[in-house]
Amino acid sequence: MSSVGIVKPQAFRFSEPLQLQSGASISDYHLMVETYGELNADKSNAVLICHALNASHHVAGYYEDQPKNIGWWDNMVGPGKPVDTNRFFVIGINNLGSCFGSTGPMHMNPATGKPYGADFPVVTVEDWVRAQARVADQLGITQFAAVMGGSLGGMQALAWSILFPERIRHCVVIASTPKLSTQNIAFNDVARQAILTDPDFHGGDFYAHKVVPRNGLKVARMIGHITYLSDDDMAEKFGRDLKTGEYQFGYGVEFEIESYLHYQGDKFATYFDANTYLLITKALDYFDLARSRREG
Question: Are both 275 and 147 inside the same structural domain?
Fold first, then answer.
């Protein structure tokens, strides 16, 4: 099965304010979008792929100047693949507040001429879905053949089924949940505290100081990865294996599980934005499908 090949993102710009669940609003924002395949004449073959925490609109294919930058779901989306671009017009949208091109905390606030930083409004899964619906409107798509995603992306698919049931024919939810558990919320708060208490965070305005709260981001990601594996999975994958086979009687990295967590944390801190991490984990915490249905 072949790839969709070279792709090029597009910026969809919106001047009309988007009313947010918090009561705040944001205007003059843009969303980065990629599409694959061809939209049919009656615009009935569109599939929306919703991304998780550290993914983006770059779902499949690769960039001409970055051939190794392959879409995060390239194995699933393309000609002859499960989401077949010979049949479907596939859309990837980078969510508002992300750090991969759409308007987010690192972008200029038109009201101040400075990066939004900590002033960027808190957004929810429902806010993202309403923003995605505006992209569909611009493309003339009144109903998706399917909206799908995994983890946080699955939450967005679920929200579509509640907010716009008439605009989707299928809702595909993978490895997701209608709401986080109490323990999930607790882990997310500890992760946020790691960022908030990093001296380089500067109350969210670290851009002006030309620093990155790298240690906080690293620890936050390490905490996140602990929650991504069950105790049994972690034991099977790493056990109590030591990197050198012997105790070193110090506080460095000795166990394989420690090495894994440090690697993931260090890598994440090189490319992700701390304010975006705070926003997205809060959106995770707030999502509650039953509450959304009650509130309409």
Answer: no
Residue 4 inside a domain? The answer is: no
**Would you put residue 178 in left (φ > 0), alpha (ψ -120 to 50) or beta?**
alpha
CB distance 274 to 195 below 8 Å:
yes
Other CB atoms within 10 A of residue 128 CB? 28
Given a cut of 70, whether residue 215 has pLDDT beyond it is: yes
Q: φ, ψ for residue 10 (rounded to 5)?
A: -125, 150
Among candidate residues 176, 206, 228, the one where a domain is terminated? 176
pLDDT in tens, 43-68: 999 999 999 999 999 999 999 999 99
Q: What is the pLDDT of residue 291?
A: 85
Element (H, E) at 149: strand 146-150
Cα–Cα distance for residue pair 247/117, rounded to 1 Å: 44
Q: What pLDDT shows up at residue 296?
A: 60
Alpha-carbon span 32 to 109, nearest angstrom = 18
CATH number at residue 24: 3.40.50.1820
In eight-state DSSP terms, residue 72 is T
Length of the chain: 296
